[in-house]
TrEMBL record:
Residues 1038-1049 have a biased composition (Polar residues). It comes from Setaria viridis (Green bristlegrass). This is DNA 3'-5' helicase. The lineage of its organism: Eukaryota, Viridiplantae, Streptophyta, Embryophyta, Tracheophyta. The keyword Nucleotide-binding applies. It is an enzyme of class 5 (isomerase). It catalyses: Couples ATP hydrolysis with the unwinding of duplex DNA by translocating in the 3'-5' direction; ATP + H2O = ADP + phosphate + H(+). Residues 263-464 form the Helicase C-terminal domain. GO terms for biological process: reciprocal meiotic recombination.
Length: 1223
């Protein structure tokens, strides 16, 4: 214990620099303050001070603040503040204490220019700029923890580096369940201060000052806060300015807590007569009604004694009280005041509260019964303090709970008035079994333990989300920064560790606790670790748990929830949540709950049912009780009027709304359409305590209660539309209210979000996806107001249960009309139901829902080869020649796993309707028709030039009538098509070695999601192809269809394509950097029916060359690609008939090479007489016309069609349909 200084050695306020002296309204510091003065103001060491209440600890905080501000003093002692550069954080256990200190310090420090900011649940009107400019931030542990959890996303953690001083009031709060939040935020500040990037910031040398009531293990807190011995100050009761006498009385329990508190009223008068001795007394009651009843009981007892009233000392006092009572607006308070007794609570008007406070301070009012809020509010000291019951009714939990220790000490701190009394008395009335707890508390014998372990997983997740903890080593360091680490070594049995465990083994167990918590987070997908389980990365579910301050058990229920949850399923999740586990099913409640579940009037939306679907006759679990309470509340007119059940109902709605909002964001992240929409609806319903189909929707407007809503409903006014259409006078007539009530209700309608309409329009089918335009139009004018209304715009597919688009909009501010384009996958011969929803936040009954059905039909079939479940390309062909419409296909995961091949992309064969049944029977085994959704791109084969590609796409995306979608292919339509498409073609000249029957076919490349393909070693015959690494999977090929399939690996790996069968094709590829040359070479075996293909891809500055060699029955095809960002797909179909004349390869086999250049340049094609090849080089259109003679394409194609079938060699010509289906 710190030694007492000589009373004559008191420090003067004049010892401070002149700018700081006006902060204090006295000349000398007291003994406690004088002893701590030097350490507080002339050093920067951390401090922990333990002293009784009322001993002047707040002055120590102010001295430390001035020490920090002294950095802004110039050498001539002028104060020049730089706002926001050095921040002080004040953390108190309650909002009332924060607000009290805010008023006090605004008065004292305001003249110095200090900007104080309150950061509590009562004050949400601050932004990043306000935090940045603040010099002193006053907050509670939970709010500071919550704010810093949001800070990573909102950018609010930037001020952490400016924190130089942390003031912790009532640090013994660590022993309460709420103490875990305080421990977590202090540990977070300690962790951040040790980071390397904070070395040059004020946070690196942050100073901690903690004060508390008398506690026995102050050294443990000092060790946690790294306070040196000179910074640890312990003072006893001798430092209290007024000596206190404490008494704790125990009473036998009653049937319930409510009756126990009421029974204590009969003992208050005797206690006051014995200990108050005619002096002022404060009687703390747990509820407003309890304070009022206690005051009435005491005043009636005093009035019954007449002139012997112990609460009336003189006739002058009586006259003052009688005159004051005439100005009192509350009749019950007026009746009590004239007898010397009053009550004070939040239910009184401000005028009456001020009146009561003034009478008590003057001494005219001797007894004041009040609630516990007065303990932190106005400074009303008294000689005697009586705490009537140590329990209070917790509105959130719906039951009686013990006061927090800090609250009891604050009440006790009101005892003793230094200017008037030299002694004080504290009386605590409690149950017999808790007497020893409060005796230890008042005597300073209660050890302060850590409460972090039960909720360590939640706080550890919060640190990982904020990136404070990025790996296992930092997680262990975080544990070592906590108060838990200090106490688990001192009292291991309290934390599940055997006493006497060796120190090294104890360290391992502490590390094991940390690792165990991390494994739990990983198991449920809240965080991610690397393969060595060392690095830690937050995932979206973990971020949501930290953001919404949920418990881990509740988050596990959300993660395990189905993607197709109904409203009832989501409500059951809330009923099982850990936030409301305190609600219990009492025996006397079962009859009421059973009657509600019977629901003869059909009020409830959901009921408690058995496995067979019938309603339960008896409620058996607390989850059943919670489910019924929520349903009864959401009707808008609950049957339950019991006070206890009403309090539980309010807690269910407040906690349930927070959980539902977390589920909303989680299901949006998972893109689960049904669950997301239902979560939004449930969150709004719990917020307003109304289902969206409730007949009492008008209760959402301020000023309309259930009575008014019922009256309006009887007149047919039960929603906002009918209310807007109703006349103001009719509203007044129906509700029985006077003018201008109707006008007032009409004005309240302006606070609602504007009316918005949704329009869905089909913009066409392109690349296998339907383009849908969703337009929002504001139908009513947006009224300027301070309140911003938000809404969620969601577009989803009903069949797939997938969210296709989501955006959060401000209903008054978006540009109307506002349109978005959504690409909707549409399978063939099926329909897709598209839903667009606009869900308003905070309101129910205003949501807009629209449905749009998309149907696509086709006459051609698309067959799909083997593949895996990935984004797949779509194939698009010109609508004019009616090959196939664009489609969107998705491969199911289960089917893809059973049909996996080494190819990383799907290859699709387009079949004509005229394919015979025999040909279909000969198709590849394992191929299947399109029946799923995905994104697939099919390369189109046409006779368009490269620069016309954009026009063709625009034309193909325009929807055409169904009857014009497919046309029969005749010779006339074929020539019309060729004439139309060949107007801008470069003219061609035949070489001497080239027969006119050869048909130059242009393979148009489309962008796909794959780059190149390779071939594997085992798929090659003897032909000298470069070996590959991986084993091939052998796809099966139809006699009439030859498929290219491929596997996409990393850029450095080789890619493989193989097609074994009757006409084996050998294809290999290598993908190098864009500056290196990628070579693709196929060498066919020495058989006459094999295809040879070679392609070379060079860098953009080099030319691309393609050559093919053709045997008697072989077709050569090659393509060049210059742009490295483009990807090529090759689709080859073996012709049914051979289009080439018979002859030797030297005479008739064409070699083809092509280069794709920019769209603005033309191509030039020629046949060389010296070499049997078909070459293409870049040149302008003028050069083409000048260098080559015209080539009649019409005669050329007619010649092909007139060719008879040559049965001698088995060769065949392409018939008309085959030619253009191949095109």
């Amino acid at each position: 214990m710190g030694s007492l200084v000589d009373p004559y050695a008191l420090r003067c306020v004049s010892d401070l620099p002149p700018p700081f002296r006006p902060v204090f309204g006295f000349r000398y510091f007291n003994s406690l303050q004088s002893e701590c003065f030097h350490v507080c103001f002339f050093s920067d060491v951390n401090m922990v001070i333990s002293a009784p209440t009322g001993s002047g600890k707040t002055v120590l905080f102010e001295l430390c603040i001035l020490r920090l501000l002294s950095r802004f003093l110039s050498p001539d002692l002028r104060f020049n503040l730089v706002k926001g550069t050095l921040k002080t954080i004040y953390i108190a256990p309650s909002k009332a204490l924060v607000q009290e200190k805010l008023r006090d310090w605004n008065t004292k420090l305001g003249p110095l220019g200090i900007n104080c900011l309150e950061m509590t649940g009562d004050n949400e009107f601050y932004n990043n700029k306000a935090i940045h400019d603040a010099d002193l931030i006053l907050t509670t542990p939970e709010k500071f923890d919550s704010m810093s959890r949001h800070g990573v996303r909102d950018g609010r953690l930037g001020f952490f580096s400016d924190i130089a001083l942390v003031l912790i009031d009532e640090v013994h709060l660590l022993n309460d369940p709420r103490g875990a939040a305080l421990e977590a935020v202090i540990s977070r500040i300690k962790m951040l201060s040790r980071q390397g990037n904070m070395k040059s910031s004020p946070l690196a040398n942050v100073r901690f000052i903690a004060v508390s009531a008398t506690i026995p293990n102050i050294e443990d807190i000092a060790e946690w806060l790294l306070a040196p011995p000179e910074g640890v100050k312990r003072f006893g009761e001798e430092m209290r300015p007024v000596k206190l006498t404490t008494k704790v009385f125990g009473y036998a329990p009653a049937k319930n807590d409510f009756l126990f508190e009421r029974r204590l009223q009969s003992f208050i008068y005797d206690i006051l007569m014995q200990h108050s001795r005619g002096k002022s007394a404060l009687v703390f009651c747990s509820t407003r009604k309890g304070a009022q009843e206690a005051a009435q009981c005491l005043s009636q007892t005093g009035a019954s004694l007449g002139y012997s009233n112990p609460f009336m000392q003189s006739m002058q006092q009586y006259e003052h009280l009688r005159e004051a009572s005439l100005t009192c607006s509350d009749k019950q308070l007026q009746a009590c005041i004239v007898h010397g007794v009053g009550f004070h609570n939040g239910g009184l008007c401000l005028k009456d509260r001020n009146l009561v406070e003034g009478l008590f301070l003057k001494g005219d009012l001797q007894i004041l019964c009040t609630t516990n809020t007065l303990a932190h509010g106005v400074n009303l000291p008294a000689h005697t303090v009586v705490i009537k019951s140590t329990q209070f009714f917790n509105k959130e939990k719906g039951l009686y709970v013990e006061y927090e220790r800090s609250m009891v000490l604050q009440m006790c701190g009101r005892a003793g008035r230094p200017p008037f009394d030299d002694t004080g008395t504290i009386i605590i009335m409690t149950r017999r079994e808790t007497v020893h707890l409060y005796e230890n508390l008042l005597n300073g014998c209660e050890m302060v333990e850590s409460q972090l372990l039960p909720c360590a997983v939640e706080h550890l997740n919060a640190e990982i989300v904020q990136l404070t903890v990025a790996d296992i080593s930092l997680a262990i360091e975080w544990i070592k920064c906590s108060y838990l680490y200090i106490r688990i070594k001192k009292n291991p049995e309290n934390y599940g560790v055997k006493r006497g465990t060796p120190r090294d083994l104890l360290e391992k167990q502490i590390q094991g606790i940390c690792v165990e918590k991390i494994h739990e987070l990983v198991e449920y997908g809240l965080i991610l670790t690397d393969e060595y389980a060392f690095l830690l990365q937050p995932l979206e579910p973990g971020k949501l748990m930290a953001k919404f301050y949920l418990k881990f058990d509740t988050m596990k229920l959300i993660v395990k929830a189905s993607a197709c949850c109904s409203l009832e399923d989501l409500l059951h999740i809330i009923c099982h949540s850990a936030e409301i586990t305190w609600i219990q099913l009492r025996r006397n409640e079962k009859k009421v709950l059973n009657d509600i579940n019977t629901d003869k009037d059909g009020r409830l939306l959901f009921h408690i049912v058995m496995e067979n679907g019938k309603r339960k006759k008896r409620v058996q679990t607390r989850e059943d009780k919670i489910f019924l309470l929520a349903n009864d509340c959401l009707t808008g007119d609950p049957l339950i009027h019991d006070l206890s059940l009403n309090q539980e109902m309010n807690s269910i709605c407040s906690n349930g709304c927070r959980i539902a909002r977390c589920m909303r964001e989680y299901f949006i992240y998972k893109k689960s359409y049904r669950s997301a929409i239902n979560s939004m609806i449930l969150a709004n319903s719990l917020h307003q305590k109304l289902w969206e189909r409730s007949p009492f929707l008008l209760k959402q407007l301020p000023g309309i209660g259930i009575v008014t809503a019922k009256a309006l409903k009887s007149a047919g006014i039960c929603d906002f539309d009918t209310l807007a259409a109703a006349d103001a006078r009719k509203i007044e007539s129906v509700t029985g209210r006077n003018y201008p009530f109707g006008n007032h209700i009409k004005e309240l309608m302006s606070s609602l979000p504007p009316k918005i309409d949704i329009h869905i329009e089909d913009a066409g089918n392109r690349l296998g996806k339907s383009t849908i335009t969703v337009t929002l139009t504001r139908l009513s004018q947006a009224i300027q107001s301070n309140k911003r209304n938000f809404a969620d715009m969601v577009v989803g597919s009903e069949e797939d249960n997938v969210i296709l688009f989501h955006e959060k909009i401000r209903t008054q501010e978006f540009h109307s009309p506002y349109s978005v384009k959504v690409f909707v996958p549409c399978p063939p011969n099926a329909r897709v139901t598209l839903k667009a929803d606009l869900i308003f936040e905070e309101y129910v009954g205003l949501d807009v829902h629209k449905k749009h059905i998309i149907s696509r039909e086709d006459d051609l079939h698309v067959t799909k080869a083997h593949g895996i479940d990935k984004a797949e390309p779509t194939y698009n062909l010109p609508a004019e020649i009616c090959l196939v419409s664009s489609r969107t296909i998705r491969t199911s995961r289960s089917q893809s796993r059973t049909e996996q091949s080494p190819l990383s992309k799907e290859v699709y064969v387009i079949e004509d309707d005229a394919v015979t049944a025999l040909e279909k029977a000969d198709n590849v085994q394992g191929t299947r028709k399109f029946n799923n959704l995905a994104s697939l791109e099919v390369p189109s084969f046409d006779l368009l030039s490269e620069e016309e590609y954009g026009d063709m796409q625009a034309a193909a995306s325009t929807p055409e009538p169904a009857e014009a979608e497919c046309k029969s292919a005749t010779s006339n339509t074929i020539f019309d098509h060729i004439r139309k498409k060949s107007k801008d073609f470069p003219t061609l000249v035949l070489s001497k070695s080239m027969d006119s029957s050869y048909e130059p076919l242009i393979l148009k490349k489309m962008k796909t999601s794959r780059d190149q393909f390779g071939v594997e070693q085992s798929s090659l015959h003897t032909g000298g192809v470069t070996p590959m690494d991986s084993e091939p999977a052998e796809p099966r090929v139809s006699p009439t269809n030859m498929l290219f399939t491929g596997k996409r690996n990393s850029p450095s790996e080789k890619k493989i394509m193989t097609t074994p069968g009757e006409s084996p094709l050998r294809f290999s590829g290598e993908n190098d950097s864009p500056l290196e040359k990628s070579k693709i070479l196929i060498n066919a075996p020495a058989e006459n029916s094999h295809l040879q293909l070679a392609a070379k891809r060079s860098s953009p500055s080099e030319k691309s060359k393609m050559t093919t060699t053709l045997d008697e029955c072989s077709l050569g095809l090659a393509g060049g690609k210059d742009r490295p960002l483009e990807k090529s797909n090759i689709l080859i179909r073996t012709p049914v008939e051979n289009p080439f004349e018979k002859g030797t390869p030297a005479e008739n086999s064409p070699q083809f090479a092509a280069k794709r250049d920019s769209p603005s340049e033309k191509r030039k094609f020629s046949f060389s007489s010296s070499l049997p090849c078909f070459q293409a080089e870049q040149c302008t259109k003028q050069e083409v016309r000048a260098a080559y003679q015209p080539f009649n394409i019409e005669e050329y194609v007619k010649d092909i069609l007139r060719k008879p079938k040559d049965s001698e060699n088995g060769d065949s010509f392409l018939n008309c349909r085959s030619v253009f289906s191949f095109l």
